[in-house]
Write a structure and sequence with these properties.
The complex is a heterodimer.
Chain A lengths: L9 E4 L3 H12 L5 E5 L14 E2 L6 H15 L1 H5 L10 E5 L2 H16 L5 E3 L1 H7 L10 E5 L3 E2 L2 H14 L3 E4 L3 E7 L2 E7 L2 E4 L3 E3 L5 H7 L7 E10 L9 E4 L5 E4 L5 E4 L16 H14 L7 E12 L6 E4 L6 E5 L5 H16 L8 H4 L20
Parallel strand pairs in A: 1-2, 1-12, 2-8, 4-14, 12-19
Antiparallel strand pairs in A: 3-7, 4-6, 5-6, 9-10, 10-11, 13-16, 13-17, 14-15, 15-16, 18-19
Helix pairs in contact in A: 1-6, 1-9, 2-9
Chain B lengths: L5 H6 L7 E2 L6 E2 L12 E4 L2 E5 L11 E2 L14 H5 L17 H11 L8 H7 L4 E10 L3 H12 L4 E4 L12 E3 L2 E5 L11 E7 L3 E12 L3 E3 L12 E3 H9 L9 E4 L3 H10 L3 E5 L6 H10 L3 E2 L2 E8 L3 E8 L5 E5 L2 E4 L3 E3 L2 H6 L3 E4 L4 E4 L12 E3 L11 H13 L18 H9 L9 E3 L4 E2 H9 L5 H8 L12 H12 L3 H4 L11 E2 H6 L10
Parallel strand pairs in B: 6-7, 6-11, 7-8, 11-24, 13-20, 14-15, 14-20, 15-16
Antiparallel strand pairs in B: 1-2, 3-4, 3-5, 9-10, 10-11, 12-21, 17-18, 18-19, 22-23, 25-26
The chains are: A alpha/beta, B alpha/beta.
Chain lengths: 387, 535
Amino acid sequence: MRLARDAYRAVIIGGGVIGLHTAYHLARAGAGPILVLERGFLSSGSSGRNGGGVRQQWETRSTIRLARESVAAYRSFGREFGYNIWFRQGGYLFLASTRAELAQLRIVHELVSSEGLASRMVGPDDVGRWIDGIAPGATVGGSYLATDGTLYPFPVLWSLYEAGRSLGVEVALGTEALGTVVRDGKVAGLSTSAGPVATPCVVNAAGGWSAEVSRRAGLAMPNVASRHEILATEPMKRFLDPMVVRVRDGLYFSQSMRGELIGGIAVPHAPGTSRGVPSSPQFLTRMAGALVDLVPRLGALGVLRAWSGYYDDTPDGLPVIGEDPRLPGFVQANGFGGHGFMLAPAASRRVAAAVLGEPVDLPPEEFAPARFLARGRAGPVEGLQLG
Amino acid sequence: MDGETALDALARSGFPRVVRSLRYHRLRGPFCGTGDCTGCLVRVNGRPNVRACRHPVEEGDRIDAGNGWPSARYDLLGTFDLAFPRGVDLLHGFRRPWWAVPWYHRVIRALAGYSAAPDPAAAAALVAPPLTYEAEVTVVGAGPAGTAAAARLVAQGRRVVVMDRQREPTAIPGAEVIGGTNISFLPPPDPTAPRPFLLLGFREPGQGISIQSRSVIVATGAYDAPLLFGGNDRPGIVAAELALRWAARGRSPALGRAVIVGGGARADAVLERLGASVRAVVSLADIAPSVAARASDLGIPLYPRSLVLEARGGRRVRSLKLRTRGGGPHFSIRCDSVILAHAAVPNVQLFFQSGAAMGWRPDPGAYFPRTGPDGSTTVPGLFAAGAAAGLGRGEAVASGARVAESIAAGAPPANAVAETGSREPGPLEGYYRELLHEPRRGKWFACTCEDVLLEDVEAAHERGYRGIEVIKRYTNVGTGTCQGRYCLPSALLVLSLLEERPPSEVGYITQRPPVVPTPLAALAGLRSVVPEERT
């Protein structure tokens, strides 16, 4: 593949939801020529591999605000872009198995409600009405927010890809970023598998591969890629409205518009992206066991397919958004830890602002790359990493 | 021979039509004869998505057609099909007006799925302790090749486990033959383990199976390829496999007057079994002399080098519209069924899963494992035999024996692996090149499981999406219950023509586990027997 130009206003590494959305915002702002590099095919990374959950229940105030803004954007997404993303606000139901977990959820609930969102605590009887056939005694209750929901991720990508291209964004598929060219201590260009380009700005939106992209620019980052797996069952008639997330082990599942149950559970895998995206027998059996223990009637439902993808985890569970102070012109937009899709509309606006040199209205101790450089300083932590 | 299935029972009173499709609620009938298509999904004793052809009927079974209101036979939701003769665009439609969106969600969720969630009693009936095996050699598939391999290995004193989907496969003395089983997952081997392979699957209806094995022979055979034409989903259009099975059971009257599509050995086999009830033999290419001779003995007309354009009819096929290739007038043949016997494609999902190198063969138009002369693949310890390795019926037994000899001799590392990839256009590519220029009538289904139309695939292409992986995610082709068996062969060829590059460059979708939909109960039962992952 040949690139159309030899110089760009910004080059975005990663054609996922963060990269494409940032490119769209930049093009709308008339920033100049924008190039997006996607190493694989469109939707080959985590943006094409997630479960479609969108929630606003978090342990940190700024993430709740980003999520709330993103929900509003997804509500109007179809009108703006022409694709139906089937955003269904069926709620998110967090399940506690113990009193201690319930107390933890209550703290989240109080923070979420203080932001004006109508979350509420629910008892086992409420849960039984949502999950028909839940095993008796499986939960002591949980928290629920009706305006959380699920969407169909692919049309979001098609929308951003087509809208960006119609605004002049160049998306180079099957093209890899090889290394950043630095001149006078600043970003001056990028070498790619399709040849070198000149640019004053590189955006690292490479998801699970972001630490490697930073390393190729000479920047150490603490991001770690962890592989997570999902399965989908055979379709069935309407059975479940909310996304269900169990605090104890991270089991989550929801029912898609196609009627499939889609869900996952954390299974330990070796860190890093070297093993590709296989499915494991450990996940399939553990996930099936957890689901059947919780809702025994689902045992008679078939698993249709399973797949995996990468979370881009950070030590404090918060994303990295902003220019890297060690290398002017290098903007980090990663570390979303498996929640990039749900935060993308709001987060990518801030990434675009960082590219344009505008102020980023996010607390630096929670989001700026610099927070990892100040050793020994404990900042805020986002602990609700489930679902 | 297996006992009577629910589908047999339904076929006694004519061609069974018990399924309504997911998107358009079109009436569907059984197609494949192997337990992979969605043409006979029923709800049995509160368990959804049971293939009637795989369910042995018992006294007192409650069998419901799950999809359709008030019933699958007379379904008011079928008006959806009539309301959208050119198809419905779920990617762009149903966004306006904004206040109707929740209502659209309800309607779409009502259309989705074949049946309601399982009854608790149905799940309880599936709970069973898992079956676990340790084997030197595991053979998947007890057809001629697998049986020959297993028998030869037993003679060499090897401990052999054989898995087959038939409920009562033929016994192989000295080997453990487990019928009614589906191997649905063969991950890449762990070379450091004494038994590097772990196979997961289930014994029907829902008992988990795990096998740890030193070597694996995949002899999963081939199946009849799908074909694109108008109304190619109508009840009465069946694979040769189904016709042959029904003929063996005396059920062929349900097929009525049949048209056979195909001109080779497979068509000959069907013609031999069905005889005078065949109305015509239609071939996409030439017709083999043996077929021509048999047909002329029976007085059956032959239509070589034909384009199949449209299956017409209402609740089942009533006629097949054709045109001679290279130009010529349209004509129709009256019939009650259309039997597809034009090509066979291999069951290679397990090779893909295990990481074996694959190559494209233009004839028949499918991917095959790259194999050495002894059937070894690029995965050490994994072998291919019979039709799954691309060998013909006559070579199956010999190929099984060769694999067995190689394993018994202590197989050398698989380094001499033959190149099977090719960029030459195959016979079906030329056929589709001509067919796609024809004016179309009726709905052409690229994928019947998910009701994806050929037009949907073309629309994705027109918007600039390239390669089967992206087209799959854009259109849902390959994501249905048959796991892509009955859409990918045609979809790859069509995309190859649209993208003007060989099918091998259009790519292939990752063959995700499971190969066959596997009950959660079976997988849950295996959780204690699957070893921890080494990280």
